[in-house]
Design a protein that fits this description.
globular, binds carboxymethyldethia coenzyme *A, Citrate Synthase, domain 1, three-stranded antiparallel sheet, mainly alpha, about 0% strand, Citrate_synthase_euk, about 475 residues, 22 helices, Cytochrome p450-Terp, domain 2
Length: about 475
């Protein structure tokens, strides 16, 4: 069974498989309008009316039940959030505004002679639900490039962090400090009406996304390139290209990889820790910088985004302990050692997914195409053959398949980015696209402060007439 699944996923069937979907997918409602905020204005009016009518008619419809196990079990499976930007199917994986990763790879604009979608296009799709034209994507690239400069107090703070502060902590601190620039916080303090909130959140979101690569590259160069400054932004280059330039990488394939990486890590519906933390904090009308810093703090956990660092650490230990050219038996024993010492196998399992993560597969396709002989890639492929059966045999993990984090480090290492403590920062740059798209809509639709009801064990026992 496992080998059948693997056989079907190791080839690249996406172009053929995606074509029927694409006919309805490619639609540019206002193809000549390159102003995203302007586009949003009419969409928000329409969607607000739609939601108002829908709630009026069906507001009392019951969508699910909550068991005591769900309450103790991390609220798994409880339907309690609205997220318009993407939906995660346990078997199919993520769909951004209804469209799978292979669809997006095919349909979203790319650079000339490029093969990977531009994250700018994905952002447009997440925000509007429509596939942008090349011109619309170029307008976003220009917009983000124009907003990339950092205020001096943020640069000074970053330059003064001791190297012992983890890159994710630096990223989160920089975002928190950028709150001083928030248009939304200023507008709120001035008493601007609620129906205009989204416009200020939009400006903050665009600033935040524009500035994130500059912050991330400054952190990288401070920690790993002797503090040499980042190069200036070029408004003619796309977001990922400026980012890799500032990091100090000049291989065009690394930039292509970055375009793909920043696209696929962007959004994973609303309940994951980073998206939910950002949404929760934003619901208190904390500004987008403070809200996204909260999301980043969640992303920095080893069961979430930090898993990409953990995977590389674990692979490094594997190579130190048993080497690079290892037999299946040796690998088998190493994996069992990990499990028996009470650790998780990083990069495997998922709270929602029950199949191999399509974000893993798209990275695997990239590796098969561009670095098939890479020894670490071969090791990762060997793990893909062996880990799921072991996790099934152990009988604990509900999903024995690899997730996005099992593959990203291998690709980055291939192009020379070996500093694994930095990997989650890249995830954090990308996740802003989804979190910010959602935050614009949360304020546009006037979502209230989030406040679910909690209960004590004593209260639950009383409910069950037991003690
Ligand atoms: N290795 C070993 N044990 C695992 C496991 C793995 N990869 N995945 C799950 N399990 C264990 C859990 O720890 C849990 O054990 P206990 O009952 O002793 O607590 C049991 O299996 C059941 O867990 P689950 O319901 O299958 O998984 P959860 O929804 O609770 O957790 C996740 C999901 C991702 C945190 C978990 O699979 C995990 O820890 N994986 C490794 C870390 C990782 O790769 N995280 C990245 C996820 C993607 C992302 O967010 O970036």
């Amino acid at each position: 069974m496992l080998s059948v699944l693997r056989a079907s996923t190791s080839v690249l069937p996406r172009a053929k498989a995606s074509l029927p979907v694409l006919s309805s997918f490619i639609r540019h409602v206002h193809a000549d309008n390159t102003d995203l905020k302007d586009e949003l204005r009419s969409l928000i009016l329409k969607q607000s009316e739609d939601v108002r009518e829908f709630r009026q008619k069906h507001g009392n419809k019951v969508v699910g039940e909550v068991t005591i196990d769900m309450m103790y079990g991390g609220m798994r499976g409880i339907k309690g959030l609205i997220c318009e930007t993407s939906v995660l199917d346990p078997d199919e994986g993520i769909r951004f505004r209804g469209h799978s990763i292979p669809d997006c790879q095919l349909a979203l604009p790319k650079v000339a002679r490029g093969e990977e979608p531009l994250p700018e296009g994905l952002f447009w799709l997440l925000v509007t639900g429509e596939v942008p034209t090349d011109d619309q994507v170029k307008a976003i690239s220009r917009e983000w490039a124009k907003r990339a400069d950092l205020p001096s107090h943020v640069v000074t703070m970053l330059n003064n962090f001791p190297s012992t502060v983890h890159p994710m902590a630096q990223l989160s601190a920089a975002l928190t400090t950028l709150s001083s620039q928030s248009h939304f916080a200023k507008a709120y303090a001035e008493g601007k009406p609620k129906k205009l909130y989204w416009e200020f959140v939009y400006e903050d979101a665009m600033d935040l996304i524009g500035k994130l690569p500059t912050i991330a590259a400054t952190i990288y160069r401070n920690l790993f390139r002797d503090g040499s400054p980042v190069c200036p932004i070029d408004v003619k280059k796309d977001w990922s290209w400026n980012f890799t330039d500032m990091l100090g990488y000049d291989d065009p394939m690394f930039t292509e990889l970055m375009r793909m990486y920043l696209t696929i890590h962007s959004d994973h519906e609303g309940g994951n820790v980073s998206a939910h933390a950002c949404h929760l904090v934003g619901s208190a009308l904390s500004d987008p910088y403070l809200s996204y810093a909260a999301g980043l703090n969640g992303l920095a956990g080893p069961l979430h985004g930090l898993a990409n660092q953990e995977v590389l650490l674990w692979l490094t230990k594997l190579q130190q302990d048993i080497g690079v050219d290892v037999s299946d038996e040796e690998m088998h024993a190493f994996i069992w050692d990990t499990l028996q010492s009470g650790q998780v196998v990083p990069g495997y399992g998922h709270a929602v997914l029950r199949k191999t993560d399509p974000r893993y597969l798209v990275q695997r396709e990239f590796a098969l195409k561009h670095l098939p002989e890479n020894k670490l890639f071969r090791l990762v492929s060997q793990l893909y053959k062996i880990v799921p059966d072991i996790l099934i045999e152990q009988g604990k993990a509900k999903n024995p398949w690899p997730n996005v984090d099992a593959h990203s480090g291998v690709l980055l290492t291939h192009y020379g980015m070996t500093e694994m403590s930095y990997y989650t920062v890249l995830f954090g740059v990308s996740r802003a696209l989804g979190c910010m798209a959602s935050m614009i809509w949360s304020r546009a639709l006037g979502f209230p402060i989030e406040r679910p009801k909690s209960m004590s064990t004593a209260g639950l026992k009383k409910l069950c007439n037991t003690n």
